[in-house]
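Key idea: predict the complex, not the pieces.
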Amino acid sequence: MSTDDRPLASAASALVDGRRDPVEYVATCHDRIDAIESDVRAWVDGPKPRTQLTAEAEALADRYPDPEDRPSLFGVPVGVKDIFHVDGLPTEAGADIPASEVVGPESEAVSRLVDAGALVAGKTVTTEFAYFDPGPTRNPHNLGHTPGGSSSGSAAAVAAGMVPLALGSQTAGSVIRPAAFCGIVGFKPSHGRVPIDGVLALAPSLDHVGLFTQDVAGATRAASVLTDAWRPAATTRPTVGVPDGPYLDQAEERGRDAFEQTVAALADGGYEVHRVSLFDDIDRVNDQHGRLMAAETAQSHHDWFDRRGDAYGPEMRALLKEGQGVSVGDLADARRFRTRLCERVEDRLDEHDVDVVVSPSAPGPAPEGIDDTGDPVMNAPWTTTGQPTVALPTGHVDGLPVGVQVTARFGADERLLAWSDGLADSVRGTV
Amino acid sequence: MSTDDRPLASAASALVDGRRDPVEYVATCHDRIDAIESDVRAWVDGPKPRTQLTAEAEALADRYPDPEDRPSLFGVPVGVKDIFHVDGLPTEAGADIPASEVVGPESEAVSRLVDAGALVAGKTVTTEFAYFDPGPTRNPHNLGHTPGGSSSGSAAAVAAGMVPLALGSQTAGSVIRPAAFCGIVGFKPSHGRVPIDGVLALAPSLDHVGLFTQDVAGATRAASVLTDAWRPAATTRPTVGVPDGPYLDQAEERGRDAFEQTVAALADGGYEVHRVSLFDDIDRVNDQHGRLMAAETAQSHHDWFDRRGDAYGPEMRALLKEGQGVSVGDLADARRFRTRLCERVEDRLDEHDVDVVVSPSAPGPAPEGIDDTGDPVMNAPWTTTGQPTVALPTGHVDGLPVGVQVTARFGADERLLAWSDGLADSVRGTV
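Result:
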């Protein structure tokens, strides 16, 4: 596959208008997977067999002989994180629970992609139940490093050029962080903007459906299929806020240096940039996010954990024990804290007349080893507030990708992606 | 008002077909209220002024000159428990919180009644937030006794012939118990069968909308308006289950004796009656109901209690403190316990081939005094399972009304009311 074939938007356009044939495109993806999957291990038991995916591509081609009729993701192979139910494929969730106990109707997000002509290439590796106990996936940029998590396989599969689109999910930092570690675009829409039905719940009030692509144009094309009532927005230039204070201090020194280079480049490139004091009480923000996540996850997993507690990994087990002990009063406090945090962030953006906040996608580049998927500490506040966020690559630190995350107001998903189109060009190669 | 005018179904029929005039009917209700409200105190600050209710009745009459067009509750004055939002009336909820903080769109249940031609006569007294801290209402059968709670005013208003229909709610025993204490029919539909929107939440997974009428025909007429997709059911004769064991032992001796007289009368009257062992672990059923109620109420009231804790009465305060301390793990256990209890009850009904369970509506007649609204212990299990339940009067013990509650399978609301029509006749006057 040439580099030009990898971005979703250009590949999908070529497939829809007939410049590329879906059977041949699927074969190209499969070739790429065959070449590197044994190193990267993005897929759960590998992708679908070549014969099966080819047959699906042929059936699709037969169904839509006329380019005029073809839906916008016609013939696009996609990777699906293995916590989404997909008809015909088991959901294993990176866990030791028998797949027969993890069943349900196909997730709405998957159905929307399939209705738009996408072909599910297979299930991608997730950490156990989308928390922190890692799977076998490696970072395509350096096999000695984690791809990040929990959407490890989806990020790695897109980054390695195996598929142009993959679905993930984020409850703390599971889309934005792996996107950054793998040097690709990740998009977490506003909470609830893409239906979460058919996706195994971790903490429902924090769980977001997300996606990975090579570029912003691809993310926009996929988002327009996944969300209800997508309204195209004009590309304009946003006023940029950059957080100040203890939130930013959570980044590693090399991560902060890289981030400041990018911020300087934005200002040099003509963007109006304001320093905005946000998350001054970051320890409390993180604590309350952790409490909410633990308590809601303990509720989601209560029955399984009771019956099959031995099957859980150490990180998930610790989370569930913590969550079970949270009191109803403390849980209500955490929810109220979130409501006020959302109001507070909104007020700050208004006060500083800022359209988007740009911050580091992760404390630094991907850590070494695959036992630890890295720290979601830069992402958790934006998951708590449910605001739409895009990960954009900025360059490399110590030979590994780094990036920034761009966050807009709740519900402004369309404008965020429109703004990100220009921002992506301005930040690329600044580190 | 003659006794014949009090039952909802006959009054509504006469109003719809023009044998009675809504202005005159409203005046009759108002006369009755004027005569006894100072003793009974069913209404919050009295009913709507006579002039206002008369004007509403006149407007309604002008709107529907043709009997053919009149909806099924045309001109029927109704009492609405003061935890339901009603456009134009404050919601005070028997509490010391300013009404300006207790606002919201009109409850769906009220809107459905109004759309069906009912006239809201006013708000009826509730215990504080529909829990146990009582209001000033007295039992119309004996002013020295409680009418029961929490839907105290609604039960008393219907029992005293002030209005033929009133709305209540039940989270433990707040419809069935006051209906029994006041000697009228109470109906708690299956959980969720009537939308709870616009009603102040206590414990959402237990909160039911309910209603009070003089007889089963009236309950059926109101239920057909309140529920989605009501399907009339044929009147047949159900197989009756009677609970055995520790659940029944919760009743007072005089209450049990009265109950057994009614059961004997049913058998004599040709009903097939089976003793069914139900709720053998009644202490655990009650504990788990209490935990669920405390924990969910603590969540519903978290913000108010935090800001206005001093305004709460002692019962509610104790409940909220208890609820705040429940852990997420224990809450999940309580929810799972409920799921299993529902399955267990369903299995028992199947096993014994029983259509309805008949049990005492309360441990005995209404306690003396109005500081205590009585014990919901006979009702709580059926609130936990969410099964539809009707309170039917059976007679008097020590000069005060007593009755039985009839419970059917979840969702069998229509059949329950159809069965209850015959059952009501068979149990009436048996004590």
